[in-house]
Structure formats: C-alpha cells, structure tokens
Design goal:
The protein is α+β, with helices and mostly antiparallel strands. It is built from 12 helices and 12 strands. The strands form 2 sheets. Strands 4-10-9-8-5-6-7-11-12 form a 9-stranded mixed beta sheet, sandwiched between helices. The longest helix has 32 residues. The protein is extended and about 80 Å long. It starts with 8 loop residues before the first helix and ends with a helix.
Length: 334
Amino acid sequence: MLQALGLGPAEEAIYTALLARPTASAQGLARQTGLEEAETTRILLDLVTRGLVAVATETGSEAPDPAGRYRLTPPSVALAPLLVEQRNALQRAETAFSILTEQYRSTAAHPAGSVVEVVVGVEQVAHRFHQLQRGAQRELLVFLVGEPIAVPREEADMSESSALDRGVDFRVVAAKNYLDGPDVASDVRASIAAGLELRVADSLPLKMIVSDRERAMVPLDKADSGGEPSAIVVHRSGLLTALVHLFEREWSHARPLYSTATGVRAEPTAEPHPTQGELEVLALLLAGISDRRAASQLGLSIRTVERRMRRLMDLAGADSRLQLGWYAARAGWL
C-alpha cells in the first residue's frame, strides 16, 4: 500500500505495525513482523531520519524513553510530503512522455518508418501487444481470428482484465470459428460479465488490435518473416483511419454475443429480440430508476446495465431513451 510512496515491504510492515499501538520497541516490532531485531532497529532509525517515526519520550518529560521505544509521526504530517513528491514526479514523467511522443511524431528523418514499423519474433510481438493493451486509456478495438500465436490466451486475458479495470471501452469482433477453441466459451462469459462488448462475425479479413485510435497492430504472414511470428505496428495515419473504419463496419454487421446459463450465444440474425435480462433493465429504467440503482437491484455492474441499454437502443434504432420507450411500447416488449 505504501510502496508507491517509497517504502519497501519491510518498512511498510514496521510502519503499519506501529499504527496499532502508541509506542513499541524494536524487539516487540521484530516479534510482530517476523524480521530480525537488528534489521528492525536499522529500519526504525531510517524512518526516524525520514521523519516518519519518532523516538518516544518518557511521560511528562522530553527525555527519550530509556526502553528505546518508538512512535509514529502523524501520517497526515509525515506522508503528505511523500505524496506531493510522487505526484510531482508523475507529472514530470507525463510531461516527458508527451514531449518525446511529439518529437517522435514530428521527426522527418524516416517518414515511412514513423507510420509503420515491422516487429519480428515471438517476444517482440508479445511485447508490443501488451504495450498497446496496457497503454490504452480510452478504447480498445480488437479482431479475434484463429488460434493465438505470439501471445498465449491467458496472458491476453490478464491484459484485457487490466484494461477493463481501468474503465477502457473494450469492443471485440470475433470470427465464428474462434469460439470453437478449447475453454474459449468460459473465458468469453467472464469477459462479458466484466464489461467487454463482444460480437461475432462469420469471417474477418485479419487479426488486429487498435489502441485509443492512436496505434494498431496487425500480424503478418509467417512466410513473410522466415517462419517467425511478425506484425506491423501502424501509427496515426490514413492507414490507421482505414483500419478503424474497417472495424466499425464489421462491428455494425456482427451479431452481439450474450451469456446464457450454459455458455454464450450469438443473437440470431433474423428479427432479434431483447433478452430477459435486457427487458428487466428496461423496465426499471422506464420506471425512472437510475442506471446505478438498477444495477444494484439486479446485482449487475453499471457497465453491464449500460451495455444492455446500448443494445436495446441498437435494436430499436433509437437515439434517445425517450425514443426507446416509445418503440418498446409499440413493439410490445413490456
């Protein structure tokens, strides 16, 4: 918890142990934390130097406690400067990142290389894939085709989970045969429950990931790189815009995928209807209940409620919830 403020695991253990008592000796803290007494004493003296811990004094006196006891400096006083220092360091890093990114974009030394770069080898392809997923702040667009080659599915799932936890809008179109892989159905159910939006297409022209509409990665044919996995990374350009348009086109024609008690199911292409779960959300929202309260009453995440409402509006061709309510009444949904 405190490592972000510059405290190591052993220092944090001693610091938090002191939280529970007014004062404590090095010997007592060593027993409580499982550290050696000599190491505990060294850490306590270092914390005293940094102003996080103070040597306790005798009651009613300013003399040091002869038992060699220590107490915490109030965290609001001691930790605030560390927090400010870390914030300033992060701001400096963000400024440096922006400057370097802009310098890279504006360089004229290798104009073609600034748009497209070729990455060859399993480690390099996997590294760039994780960079794109973990660096996304707003949106990830993904085409899933065939078996994973450079990035194992479990590693991709970890990066996916991290992006969803950050609130990244995550949309995926999967080729129908991708869902036939082992254990894919259970992974898909968990991803949908976490907030990922997934649609299925009969086929897709390529495998792809687009991060924040700033960068994209597309695998190359292994025959073009001596049998090794390889990919191109596309930066902001007309080519990247074309890839985003391709995704949006496939997304608009793909069928939504939703969870069932036994697995996942694609919405049928003919006369799609709302699911029972979507109708439950619709009934609450049309009754004037907020998205957050509806999510709480139904035991869902707020992202799941928003995803279901978005699909209902797509089915109804509605641009507003007022139009959706009118369509739902006319179609006899409720």
